[in-house]
Amino acid sequence: MVTTTWRKIVYPCWRPSTEGDGLFSNSFADDYGRSEGLLWYKDYGRHVYGDFSMAVVQANNIVEDQSQLVSGSMSSVDCGPQGTFVGVYDGHGGPEAARFINNHLFDNIKKFTSQNEGMSADVINRAFLATEEEFLSLVRQQWAIQPQIASVGSCCLVGLICDGLLYIANAGDSRVVLGKLDNTFNEVKAVQLSAEHNASYESVRDELHSLHPDDSQIVVLKHMVWRVKGIIQVSRSIGDAYLKRSEFNRAPLLQKFRVREPFHKPILKAEPSIVVQKLYPEDQFLIFASDGLWEHLSNQEAVDIVNNSPRNGSARKLIKAALREAAKKREMRYSDLKQIERGVRRHFHDDITVIVLFLDSNLISQSPCNGPMLSVRGGGGIPNGVNNLI
Description:
Blueprint: H1 4-10, E1 34-36, E2 39-47, E3 50-57, E4 65-73, E5 82-92, H2 96-116, H3 121-142, E6 153-162, E7 165-171, E8 175-182, E9 187-192, H4 202-211, E10 219-222, E11 225-228, E12 238-239, E13 273-278, E14 283-289, H5 291-294, H6 299-307, H7 314-329, H8 334-337, E15 352-358, H9 361-364, E16 374-377
Antiparallel strand pairs: 1-2, 2-3, 3-15, 4-5, 4-16, 5-6, 6-7, 6-12, 7-13, 8-9, 8-14, 10-11, 14-15
Helix pairs in contact: 2-3
Cofactor: Mg(2+); Mn(2+)
Organism: Daucus carota subsp. sativus
Domain PPM-type phosphatase: 51-359
């Protein structure tokens, strides 16, 4: 069922993906998730406001998606607020920026929450910008020996539940969708909560033109795809130093990344779009995912899959549904797609990260008591000092 063109590309690299393939080559205990070839998953866990499910599938030679779920204290002080934090970091140009965010963003959230004596949209915004500055400092330190790190960046999607409020912060084109019960029709409907920063949207192109009124080439239609400066689709990110600071837009950075005209202010932004809203009993679950999922599933399709399936394994089921669609688009069987190794797999789908966060309104209405910190990283990364993963 594989078309002739794709057979020429794929067959030389066609072999079963085994436990030893890819980033997820280690066998972790259930507490840290399980891996099957290029798929890592933690089918079920408990956060302070309900259940959750996580899954990641690798397509690139080195997985560029990173993710984490932290539940417990949101502050550096003992008496700080309790909550649940979700982060999905979709890297591009390499894994370094996404890994950096995974290691630093939540610590910055805790620091600014402590300073602010509470959670707020400003706390989250400051944490994004602090993480950005820290990564750009790393780029400066590495510039002489690793200049390509200036071309590495990451989208950054964050969800945070604290004191009955849901905070959504996004820089890039990952997406969070709420499954909300419509009591009139007894249906669970999809509600997109995040604003996406991709030049394919006219509103994003308008924003770029307003921010750079003197640059007629701020967005360019290239091969039927709108790109910022003809290079990148996203207009907001953490990293991408070569489009933030002119000092990195020069040799020895590869020519393909360099902008011809000098610029005096950042072309891309790191500030996230932030939404804050109260949670209601009708709010059933949240689906956080990198754009690799949304390329193949609509918001409502994803919500229907979660709503009509057992909670256990819901994130893995979403990824499998996306891969089945990816295979169908290439006139392949899903079983054949699973045989393709990382790297070549990128011709068929992107790295995909999914975190499904189920919401228990009774728990949300209560003030969670201090308890053991829960911290899980997509792909099975074991955080330091955490001994009570569920």
